[in-house]
Amino acid sequence: MAEFDPNSGALTGKRVSSSEGEVFGARGYFVTLAGDDVVFYRMGAELRLWLRGRSWIASAATVTWQKVGNHSVMSAGDLEGQQVSITYEPLGAIEDDPTPFVEDEHWDFGLFVVNVLTEEGRASRILRG
Origin, by domain of life (predicted)? Predict the structure, then answer.
């Protein structure tokens, strides 16, 4: 659990590297990728992504993910043409997880975020209070 201030990007009280917790009255997920805190959260009716020092509206049109060799690249952009990316190594490999029904997104935060955003029903349900 951690507290996240979407105005400043401050993430305090981290106890684990990935968790679901309170985000100033909203629910969210966070992880540290390539040394940066990344937060996927809902503020009111909007899903948002804190990435590279800024809060971005999170939608299938504004957040992308791709696999490049052994790394993943997650990018966020806006309608004004601003864009940021983060390149990181996923947290593990699905081959190493004996859990039944495990998916690649359990190991790769960017893939998880994009999968949520591209599935309309899932996006509308996730992180609702």
Answer: Bacteria
The neighbouring-strand residues paired with 57 are 48
**pLDDT per position as a tens digit, 25-45:** 456 888 899 999 999 998 888
| Residue 28 CB contacts under 8 Å (≥ 6 apart), including other chains | 4, 20, 21, 22, 39, 40, 41, 42, 127
Task: Report CA dihedral (37, 42, 43, 45) to the nearest 10 degrees.
Answer: 150
Cα torsion at 68, 74, 76, 82 (round to 10°)?
Answer: -40
Domain boundaries, the chain: 3-125
Query: Each residue of 50-86: pLDDT tens digit?
Result: 999 999 999 999 999 999 999 999 999 998 999 999 9
Distance CA 75, CA 104 (A): 18
Amino acid at 2: A
